[in-house]
Design brief:
heterodimer, A: alpha/beta, 2-enoyl-CoA Hydratase, Chain A, domain 1, four-stranded mixed β-sheet, B: 80 residues, mainly alpha, Non-ribosomal Peptide Synthetase Peptidyl Carrier Protein, Chain A
Chain lengths: 279, 80
């Protein structure tokens, strides 16, 4: 394959401090670039909201057929929610305010991820390294996951006394089934790209540093298909699990109010353990 | 079937190559966090490399508290 055939042409760049996007030759590329590993906090959410607003315009003008989300950070795709920000903000508020803040954040990020999930464009998460928690949930909102062989996936939320809150459980259940969700959720173990492909999560596993290139090649292939047909096929096969998503927010908020969560967050934020990610 | 010594030797070779550390600087009972100078995210990289190399699945909770190459080798050997 000739690399130049799948490289974008001099796109213009939009975005903010956490992510930016380009549109070129019908492909939107969203680059995550918030150090250390694209932790999803208020800055990321604001940028994501700006992006989905732009996405609606791009969709209306039928300027694109594919969307690729990838990370420019060496350590991985996304390490999940910004737990330090969550802890610090919740400490600065009383319980009722903190609970309201968490629910508001979840409502907003669900709206963003539902729009990405349901966009008529074909969406690809090109992942490498750490793809944990909210990062895993962002990837799950996409139609295809193309994984670098060094990618690693995990739902570590139970160690904090929480469940994944960005729609991960309903989406993983929709895509792979309840038994897989139970394994990943209840053990909190991480798993590699080969396992992800084996269980049907990753559509392709590629060599180190090759996920974005493979995603671009896939996006170039998608351009050959009639847009309306591809959009209809996606809408037919990929329903948004609205009711479960709503219940997930309620359950997350209910769990968040328990003292164990405060202790779990504090332990994580203050940890000097060499393996703090381990459940 | 690899012997425990072979498994240990391959882990040391792999860690040296991946983290660009002279192989002769690594010993079976070394604390790999200190010897390799790696953080938690790099440890995940090592775990992924080991899983690929040995074609095993190693749940990371089994590695909790494991910090030396010999114990790590024992965990992998048990899954070969």
């Amino acid at each position: 394959m000739h690399e130049e055939s799948v490289e974008p042409k001099t796109p213009s760049r939009c975005g903010g401090s956490a992510l930016s996007w380009t549109v070129s030759d019908g492909v939107i590329e969203v680059a995550l670039h918030r150090p250390p590993c694209n932790e999803l906090g208020s800055a990321s959410l604001e940028d994501l909201e700006k992006f989905v607003t732009a996405l609606a315009v791009i969709e209306a003008e039928a300027e694109a057929h594919a969307l690729i989300i990838y990370s420019q950070m060496k350590s991985g795709f996304c390490a999940g929610a910004d737990l330090r920000e969550l802890y610090q903000r919740s400490q600065a508020m009383d319980k009722a305010e903190a609970a309201k803040g968490v629910r508001d954040f979840l409502e907003r990020i669900h709206r963003v991820l539902n729009l990405i999930d349901a966009t008529p464009l074909t969406t690809i998460a090109a992942v490498h390294g750490v793809t944990f928690g909210g990062g895993f949930e962002l990837a799950l909102a996409c139609d295809l996951i193309i994984a670098d062989k060094m990618a690693r996936f995990c739902f570590p939320e139970l160690r904090l006394g929480l469940i994944p809150g960005f729609g991960g459980i309903p989406r993983l259940k929709r895509d792979l089934g309840n038994a897989v969700v139970r394994d990943l959720l209840l053990t909190g173990r991480s798993f590699n790209a080969s396992k992800a492909q084996q269980i049907g999560l990753a559509s392709q596993v590629v060599g180190e540093g090759e996920a974005l290139h493979a995603a671009r090649a896939t996006a170039a292939q998608l351009k050959k298909f009639d847009r309306a047909t591809a959009a209809a096929a996606k809408k037919f096969i990929k329903p948004i699990p609205q009711e479960e998503l709503r219940r997930e927010i309620d359950l997350f908020c209910e769990l968040f109010a328990r003292p164990a969560v405060d202790a779990g967050l504090r332990k994580f934020v203050e940890s000097t353990d060499a393996q703090p990610y381990l459940p | 079937m690899k012997t425990a010594d072979q498994t240990l030797d391959e882990i040391l070779n792999l860690a040296a190559a991946h983290f660009k550390v002279p192989r002769e600087n690594l010993s079976p009972d070394d604390d790999f966090f200190k010897t390799l100078g790696i953080d938690s995210l790099q440890t995940l990289d090592l775990l992924t490399k080991l899983e690929h190399h040995f074609r095993v699945e190693l749940p990371d909770y089994e590695l909790q508290g494991v910090s030396d190459f010999r114990t790590l080798a024992g965990k992998i050997q048990a899954r070969l």
